[in-house]
Amino acid sequence: MNLPNLLSILRILFIPVFINLLIYHYHGWALAVFLAAGLTDSLDGLIARLTNQRTRLGTYLDPMADKLLLTASFLALGILQIIPVWSAVVVVSRDIILILGALILHLTQTQMEISPTFLGKSTTALQLIYVALVLLAAVVRGSTVSLFPVLVVTVGLTILSGLHYIYRGIHHLNSEQV
């Protein structure tokens, strides 16, 4: 087990702490834990690249930690009515659809390297930024209404990247059948 993988595991372990802080309205602490999780996300990739510690486990663990953190964040914020529930539904639905697509590829024994795209990475970054801004607004008792344009762009990019991943999967499946 190397340091980048331990940082990814730490990010996963931050999730229940983060959710509990949100539930009990410790928004400042929730923001701090969320930012710490974001820092581990940046550090694990940087350390893996700089020290040549990339592992097969890390290629699965890092994006899984991101998805778990963001899914938990959007679900909790939606359930607590801090963000519109429909936005949580869109974010979580996209991830479920992508996971089901990966499962289909696996079950059909279709070999495809599932790598993040620019759209996918941009979506993750914007989702992280949006959640951080929502938490910051909750800390300063500000309204999240001013964040609506950011939410619309975030949801739009989430849908676009989801459609792009679906297109890539279908295109790959169709090219395998030739």
Account of the protein in words:
The termini are far apart. Helix 4 runs parallel beside helix 6 and helix 5 packs antiparallel against helix 6. The protein is an all-alpha fold and 178 residues long. It is globular. The protein has one domain: Four Helix Bundle (Hemerythrin (Met), subunit A) (Up-down Bundle). It is built from six helices and no strands.
**Helix-strand sequence:** HHHHHH
How many helices? 6
The name of the CATH architecture is Up-down Bundle
Biggest sheet overview: none
**Briefly, what CATH class?**
Mainly Alpha
Judged by helices, strands and strand pairing, the structural class is mainly alpha
Instruction: From the alpha carbons, calculate the radius of gyration and give it in angstroms.
Output: 17 Å
Our measurement of the CA-to-CA distance between the termini, rounded to an integer number of angstroms, reads 41 Å
In total, how many beta strands?
0
Helix fraction bin: over 70%
Oligomer: single chain
Envelope shape: globular
Write out the CATH superfamily name.
CDP-alcohol phosphotransferase transmembrane (TM) domain
User: What's the CATH topology label?
Assistant: Four Helix Bundle (Hemerythrin (Met), subunit A)
pLDDT averaged over residues: 90
Sequence-ordered SSE layout with sheet pairings:
Layout: H1 3-23, H2 27-50, H3 56-79, H4 85-107, H5 118-139, H6 148-176
Helix pairs in contact: 1-2, 1-3, 2-3, 2-5, 3-4, 3-5, 4-6, 5-6
